[in-house]
């Protein structure tokens, strides 16, 4: 009788968790890309959804970065949007000033994204030094504070570009340009007249790159050190892990990804105001990460897509949509933390796992 | 003279921050959660006071009492419905729930009362005391007075009454408090009630100074007061008082002497500096980690 129970033999990349999570997230992204490209070419995608494709990619990449920080490294970061902001405005300025010299938009996009990522990583390094000396809620509030500081600094920057090079002024607009010059940053009005060079394909490639980076980091020696430092700081320290350095690594990679995402985001709109990347955007990213599951990249991707689309799908409800969004958010948190439902789902997953593993 | 008047204005603004910060710090002390919806309770308080004064024609004091009553009930209700089921959940889940509550209140206010700005009626007479070129408005004096009164009442309540002692016990050790026969859930509800009632008082003072009421009114004072609470050492009541006053003074000085546009950046930069020197805030307790 016992022989009747068939053992399903699965290939190694589906059984080992470290491979399974990679396969899951990569296949979701590739399948989504394929389906959406086909829908776009056959004209089945409404203009609203087409306009959401690039922002969704940006949010996914920034949220993956944040998940590395919050889920893997275990530090609550309430200022992820400021790294997006740094990336976005670096990219917009670079792209705007290169418009005459580099004609290929793709090359310009790549250069701008690299510059945005590098600039954000640099800020991550500077901000990380004071931030990572603190712990818990104090660390969270300092990331929030840096988010506010960077927002108000960018809101007060004026940058112009003409034949003589860059002109910069702070707080008061004193930039005077030669004829043919262009204002790149305009204080509270932000960047205007940006050439829109972001594409959905670039967004998908960026997601894939960020997944590869994060998974490589997670399952490497440094990744294990980061997780050890998260789980027990003192024990990790006693086996010779440098807490500050490992946390810094996660923080910089996280801000770097946010910077690249911000660059893509900034080049997707002709106007971009600094107030776009405020505390609410940071919180929104945190919501994606927590709903998707801490440390779970596939979950982050799904949660981001669902939560970006939810308000759009609720458009027929008009005024009530954000109210419903809030209620859904509260209910999800209440239900996923409910003891009865928790044991219930645990029992089901255990059963499923037993069947597949034999 | 300029310096003195800036200082007094700063103390006035700081008093409002201090009253809001008390709500944050008390809730953190007892429930160990960052109540992000606190700023939106302020907003609801402001709307209630606005309608009580301009639509129902109530005088100031009954309007404040009504606002305090509504906010107290709202605070307890939020705690019961949204936070209580998550008592054993991770801090992040509670944080996200608080954010959900905050979205909910903001959007509910927008639906009920539209997003357009309402002008809060002037409730406190203009003018004030002037002596030797220095003029202090009645509003500033009243604000500072209310803050001191609140602080005294709260300290007496926390230190001298049985309930206050029970609340302090809960914030130190919930398990032991339960064993001593303290109803922990009730203490948490009382804390939320007091915090939300204080938020209502703060909302009226805030709207008397900046007379516009809109659905996202509470966001910025909320963040500032939260900063003030951390500044003074979150969980510490004198810390919230001190942090609020200092934050207000720094903000007004930054606006007056450095730059209006950069005042927020300067306030947060000072916060970061303080936390680097004293990682648990000015009056926060340093808890030694044991192996």
Can you describe this structure?
Chain A has helices at 12-15, 17-41, 47-72, 80-98, 105-131, 136-155, 200-218, 221-231, 233-238, 243-266, 279-292, 297-313, 321-336, 339-357, and strands at 157-162, 165-170, 182-186. Chain A has a three-stranded antiparallel sheet. By secondary structure, chain A is mainly α. In chain A, strand 1 (157-162) and strand 2 (165-170) form a beta hairpin. Chain A has one domain (23-313). In chain A, helix 3 (47-72) packs antiparallel against helix 10, helix 4 packs antiparallel against helix 5 and helix 11 packs across helix 12. With 291 residues, chain B is mainly α. Chain B has eleven helices and four strands. Chain B has a two-stranded antiparallel sheet. In chain B, strands 2-3 form a two-stranded antiparallel sheet. In chain B, a hairpin with a 2-residue loop joins strand 2 and strand 3 (134-137).
Task: Report on the biggest sheet of chain A.
Answer: 3 strands, antiparallel
How many domain modules of chain A? 1
The tally of strands of chain B reads 4
In DSSP terms (H or I, runs of 4 or more residues), the helix count of chain B works out at 11
Task: State the gist of this model.
The complex is a heterodimer of chains A (358) and B (291). Chain A has helices at 12-15, 17-41, 47-72, 80-98, 105-131, 136-155, 200-218, 221-231, 233-238, 243-266, 279-292, 297-313, 321-336, 339-357, and strands spanning 157-162, 165-170, 182-186.
């Amino acid at each position: 009788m016992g022989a009747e129970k068939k053992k399903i033999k699965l290939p190694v990349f589906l059984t080992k968790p470290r491979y399974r999570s990679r396969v899951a997230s990569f296949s979701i992204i590739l399948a989504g890309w394929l389906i959406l490209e086909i829908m776009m070419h056959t004209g089945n995608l409404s203009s609203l959804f087409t306009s959401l494709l690039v922002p969704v990619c940006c949010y996914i990449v920034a949220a993956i970065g944040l998940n590395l920080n919050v889920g893997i490294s275990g530090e609550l970061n309430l200022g992820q949007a400021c790294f997006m902001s740094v990336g976005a405005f670096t990219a917009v300025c670079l792209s705007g000033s290169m418009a005459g010299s580099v004609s290929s938009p793709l090359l310009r996009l790549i250069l701008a994204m690299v510059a945005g990522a590098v600039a954000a990583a640099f800020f991550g390094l500077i901000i990380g030094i004071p931030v990572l000396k603190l712990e818990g809620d104090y660390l969270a509030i300092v990331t929030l504070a840096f988010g506010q500081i960077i927002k108000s600094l960018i809101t007060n920057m004026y940058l112009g570009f003409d034949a003589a090079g860059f002109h910069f002024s702070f707080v008061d607009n004193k930039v005077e340009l030669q004829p043919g010059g262009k204002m790149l940053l305009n204080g509270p009005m932000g960047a205007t007249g940006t050439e829109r060079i972001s594409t959905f394909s670039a967004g998908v490639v960026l997601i894939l790159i960020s997944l590869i980076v994060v998974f490589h980091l997670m399952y490497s020696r440094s990744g294990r050190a980061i997780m050890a430092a998260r789980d027990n700081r003192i024990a990790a320290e006693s086996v010779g892990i440098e807490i500050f350095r490992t946390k810094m690594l996660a923080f910089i990679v996280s801000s770097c990804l946010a910077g690249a995402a911000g660059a893509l985001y900034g080049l997707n709109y002709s106007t971009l105001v600094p107030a776009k990347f405020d505390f609410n955007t940071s919180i929104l990213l945190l919501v994606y990460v927590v709903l998707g599951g801490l440390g779970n990249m596939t979950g982050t991707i799904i949660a981001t897509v669902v939560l970006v689309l939810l308000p759009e799908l609720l458009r027929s409800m008009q005024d009530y949509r954000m109210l419903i969004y809030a209620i859904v958010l509260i209910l999800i948190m209440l239900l996923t933390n409910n003891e009865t439902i928790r044991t219930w789902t645990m029992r089901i997953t255990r059963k499923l796992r037993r069947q597949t593993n034999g | 003279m300029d310096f003195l008047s800036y200082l007094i204005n700063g103390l006035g603004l700081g008093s409002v921050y201090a009253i809001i910060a008390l709500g944050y710090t008390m809730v953190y002390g007892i429930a160990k959660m960052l109540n992000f919806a606190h700023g939106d309770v302020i907003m609801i308080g402001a709307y209630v006071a606005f309608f009580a004064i301009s639509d129902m024609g109530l005088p100031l004091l009954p309007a404040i009492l009504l606002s305090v009553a509504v906010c107290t009930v709202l605070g307890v209700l939020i705690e019961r419905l949204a936070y209580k089921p998550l008592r054993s959940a991770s801090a992040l889940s509670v944080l996200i729930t608080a954010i959900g509550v905050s979205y909910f209140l903001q959007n509910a206010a927008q639906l009920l009362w539209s997003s357009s700005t309402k002008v809060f009626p002037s409730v406190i007479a203009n003018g004030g005391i002037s002596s030797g070129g220095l003029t202090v408005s009645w509003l500033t004096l009243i604000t500072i007075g209310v803050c001191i009164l609140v602080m005294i009442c709260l300290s007496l309540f926390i230190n001298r009454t049985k309930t206050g002692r029970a609340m302090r016990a809960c914030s130190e050790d919930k398990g032991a408090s339960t064993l001593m026969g303290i109803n922990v859930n009730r203490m948490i509800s009382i804390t939320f009630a007091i915090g939300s009632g204080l938020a209502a008082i703060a909302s009226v003072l805030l709207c008397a100074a900046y007379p516009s009421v809109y659905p996202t009114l509470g966001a910025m004072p909320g963040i500032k007061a939260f900063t003030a609470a951390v500044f003074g050492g979150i969980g510490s009541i004198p810390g919230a008082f001190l942090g609020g006053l200092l934050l207000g003074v720094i903000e007004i000085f930054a606006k007056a002497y450095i730059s209006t546009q950069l005042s927020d950046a300067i306030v947060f930069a000072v916060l970061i500096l303080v936390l680097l020197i004293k990682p648990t805030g000015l009056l926060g307790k340093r808890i030694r980690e044991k192996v």
